[in-house]
Write a structure and sequence with these properties.
Number of helices: 1
Order of helices and strands: H
Number of strands: 0
Oligomer: single chain
Radius of gyration: 13 Å
Distance between the termini: 19 Å
Helix content: 40-55%
């Protein structure tokens, strides 16, 4: 059985956000946006 916890392609490269990095920390809103986009990507792959 394949790894069911990762429905996306094994060789896929996803760019979920591009932003200017001005500090060491990634802004929380960027992290949340990326999580939302990845959840949508996973859900779309299951359809």
């Amino acid at each position: 059985m394949e790894n069911e916890s990762k429905p996306f392609d094994d060789d896929a490269i996803l760019i979920v956000e591009v932003f200017n990095k001005t500090t060491r920390a990634t802004p929380k809103n960027v992290i949340e946006l990326c999580k939302k986009r990845l959840r949508k990507y996973d859900a779309d792959q299951l359809e």
